UniProtKB/TrEMBL annotation:
Record gene name: Spag7
GO molecular function, one term: nucleic acid binding
Alphabetized Gene3D superfamilies for the sequence: R3H-like domain
Source organism per UniProt: Tichodroma muraria
Lineage: Eukaryota, Metazoa, Chordata, Craniata, Vertebrata
SUPFAM superfamilies, per database record: R3H domain
Name of protein: SPAG7 protein
Residue numbers spanned by region Disordered: 70-93
InterPro entries hit by this protein: R3H_dom_sf (IPR036867), SPAG7 (IPR017330)
Highest taxon of source: Eukaryota
Amino acid sequence: PVPAVPCSPRHDVAEVAGLTSFSFGDDEDSRYVMVFKKEFAPSDEELEAYRRGEEWDPARAEERRRLRELAAQQEEAELECSPTPPGPPNDYKDKYRHLIGSDAAKAAARTMEANKAYGCVPVANKRDTRSIEEAMNEIRAKKRLRQAEDE
């Protein structure tokens, strides 16, 4: 749960005082605000209990937490002892080892060098020799022409 956004004077006062405030209740008649010190702000489980209209019981919450942990441990144990999912019996690299070799990737990584001129293209290699302004003016002219044809 996310803390209520300060939308009433009570929330504003709590925020100015350095406190945390939460709104509870469904309609305007049953709506109320609970204020807590920031260091003693309620847990998510406690807020959920308040939102359901229940009284917060730390002992019951601890029991629920313990049961959830136990269920998670049991699920983890079941996953460990369950059979492995079907998959390929071997790695594809083993199948093609005679073609690519075992150190092909390492050798390629060693010989690869960084391109120091990355992003710098010689003028001779450029296809479009117009300046940005010229290109933008041409685009605008085409757009005006299209609009004139549509009208």
